[in-house]
Amino acid sequence: QLKLVESGGGLVQPGGSLRLSCGASGSLDWYSIAWFRQAPGKEREGLGCASDSDGGTYYADSVKGRFTISRDNAKNTVYLQMNSLKPEDTAVYYCNALGFWGQGTQVTVSS
Fold first, then answer.
1. What pLDDT digit, counting tens, does each position of 44-89 carry?
2. Per mean pLDDT, which range of 32-36, 52-56, 63-67, 90-94 is the poorest?
3. C-alpha 52 chain-centroid distance
4. How far apart (Å, rounded) are the C-alpha atoms in residues 89 and 54?
5. Listed residue (96, 93, 98, 71) closest to 82, CA to CA
6. Environment class of 51 (CB within 10 Å of its CB; exposed 0-12, middle 13-18, buried 19+)
7. DSSP string of the chain?
8. Which residues have C-beta within 8 Å of that of residue 99, sequence separation ≥ 6?
9. Terminal Cα-to-Cα distance of the chain (whole angstroms)
């Protein structure tokens, strides 16, 4: 069983940046890793993923150009760099690998 732990959330002003981390209990070398978020009263939304097969990254239109996923396999960690944050980015952010979920980290964008 793979344990995932997200961190790095917090309160940020509109236009600001945050970097979230997703640390894994084991190797992520062979896994695609995805980031999701869920805002209050809304369904969980897929943001993007870092593929294991071709090394590519893919993003939802809502975050393309603002969010960047990267991975450090040596540290068993995947990152979500979030720039130009908007109030509508406020949500709990989760990572997922092989069907396992972390507990989430809260991101609040507000002045």
1. 999 999 987 667 889 999 999 999 999 888 899 999 999 999 999 9
2. 52-56
3. 16
4. 28
5. 93
6. middle
7. ---EEEE--EEE-TT--EEEEEEESS--TT--EEEEEE-TTS--EEEEEE-SSS--EEE-TTTTTTEEEEEEGGGTEEEEEE-S--GGG-EEEEEEETTEE---EEEEE--
8. none
9. 40
5 near 94, Cβ under 8 Å?
no
Q: Which residue matches tokens 């995947």?
A: 78
Both tokens of 96, joined, read 């997922």
AA identity, residue 39: A
